[in-house]
Amino acid sequence: EIQLVDSGGGLVQPGGSLRLSCAASGFTFSAYSMKWVRQAPGKGLEWVSYITSGGRTIYYADSVKGRFTISRDNAKNSLYLQMNSLRDEDTAIYYCARVRATTTPNYYMDVWGKGTTVTVSS
Amino acid sequence: QSVLTQPPSVSGAPGQRVTISCTGSSSNIGAGYDVHWYQHLPGTAPKLLIYDNINRPSGVPDRFSGSKSGTSASLAITGLQAEDEADYYCQSYDSSLSGWVFGGGTKLTVL
Q: Stretch A115-120: mean pLDDT, rounded?
């Protein structure tokens, strides 16, 4: 079964750090680009970060640029999101997702994790 | 405010047809970038419904269909079922933002 399992969320104070993980199974993880997407309470979905299959190309949304770092370990079938200098507005459910595309940059996400909750509060 | 505009809510009775619009601009949908649609039940993983404007992944019923014209796209659901009650999001790429954008989401209520 193709599966993504997000983990690592929790309660953190403003200015703090947290590292999210996403464990992939059931498919060749190293062949796919991946994304992190978040949903703040009462809000819609928001793209956070993107990484290519080999990790050479990375993009960030402006809202997290300079604070978040996406990475992956293909040997461990895992995706990560290091979040530093966290703010109240980073409070959200964070989802990892597998990326597909017919053409660049028309990327879509065909497999999603169930999400992990990050709460930034003092 | 989302770059792609969706109605906050739509509703319909079982068996009816509903459409959800997704309005963009010349830097995203109007620029020719593809539109994708997702179904999301709170607390669960979002599910891909339509990709590349009109295509359904395997396993998605043909009651769901997508279309695109100009700066807008639409998701149509026919033969509404109670299990269709969920939030629906459109997604595309925006060249001005150099990133991927979502609509604000539409809550579908099956009456």
A: 97
